[in-house]
């Protein structure tokens, strides 16, 4: 049995990834957020390149199996 490793890659250019199967699969299950994320990125609405933001894809071999955004938000700490 071949071991399938999941690799996570930070996206610097979303255009380099083949996302059609991921988008089609999510839409067929009623989830529109992946298509919306890709559309907003493509149109320049959100590139997730601000301080504390990063866009990642998860891959097995050359197939993208997931996509997600990491956003760090500052937490205010008040003395007790």
Share in β-strands:
25-35%
Largest sheet: 3 strands, antiparallel
DSSP summary, beta strand count:
3
Helix/strand/pairing class, anyone? alpha+beta
Helix percent reads: 25-40%
Q: Could you give the distance between the termini?
A: 56 Å
Summed up, the helix count is 2
What is the 3D form?
Answer: globular
Unreliable spans: none
Give the helices and strands as they follow along the chain: EHHEE
Instruction: Tell me the strand order in the biggest sheet.
Output: 1-2-3
Radius of gyration from CA coordinates: 16 Å
Overall pLDDT metric? 91
Describe the fold and architecture.
With 80 residues, the chain is α+β, with helices and mostly antiparallel strands. The chain contains 2 helices and 3 strands; from the N terminus they run E-H-H-E-E. The longest helix is centred in the middle third of the chain and has 11 residues, at 33-43. The protein is globular.
Compose a concise summary of this entry.
The protein has 80 residues and is α+β, with helices and mostly antiparallel strands. The chain has two helices and three strands; from the N terminus they run βααββ. It has a three-stranded antiparallel sheet, with no helix packed on it.
Annotate the secondary structure layout.
Elements lengths: L5 E5 L9 H9 L4 H11 L9 E8 L2 E9 L9
Antiparallel strand pairs: 1-2, 2-3
Features:
three-stranded antiparallel β-sheet; globular; 80 residues; single chain
